[in-house]
Amino acid sequence: MKTHAPSQDYLDKAKLLSESEAERIQSRMSGKLMRRFMKEKLSPLEALAIQLELEDEQLNEWREAFRKYSLKKLSK
User: Fold this and answer.
1) CB count in 10 Å sphere of residue 26
2) If 0-12 CB within 10 Å is exposed, 13-18 middle and 19+ buried, where does residue 17 land?
3) How far apart are alpha carbons 56 and 7 in whole angstroms?
4) What is the DSSP letter of 60?
């Protein structure tokens, strides 16, 4: 996983999270992102924004894979 600077859109979304929502998202951080956050190379807001963006990307990949699976299933 390559981490990058968070986009302004995701920073704005991260700012709107409640403390409970932010904690839940932080609990899903792993690998390089978590290490950067723990070493204070990223602010909590930046880490949340990057995690939100990663999760959106993963959701879109899952949707595409499921769509392909569904189409394959229907064509049988």
Assistant:
1) 16
2) middle
3) 13
4) H
Q: How many domains does the chain have?
A: 1
Q: Is residue 3 part of a domain?
A: no
Per-residue pLDDT of the chain (76 residues; tens, 9 = 90+): 556 789 999 999 999 999 999 999 999 998 888 888 888 888 999 999 999 999 999 999 999 999 999 888 888 7
* Domain coverage including residue 41: 8-74
Backbone angles phi, psi at 29, to 5 degrees: -70, 145
pTM, full prediction: 0.81
For residues 3 and 32, is the Cβ–Cβ distance under 8 A? yes
